[in-house]
Amino acid sequence: MNPNIKVVKRHGASLTDKLYLPAIYDGVKVTFKHLFENVTDINAVDTLEYPEEQPTDITNRYRGLHRLTHRADDSIACVACFLCATACPSSCIFIEATEREDGHDEKMPQSFFIDTLECVFCGYCVEACPCDAIRMDTGIFSLIGNNREDFVMDREQLLSHKGAFGEEVSRART
Ligand code: SF4
Ligand code: SF4
Question: 165 CA distance to ligand 2 centroid (A)?
Answer without folding.
Answer: 21
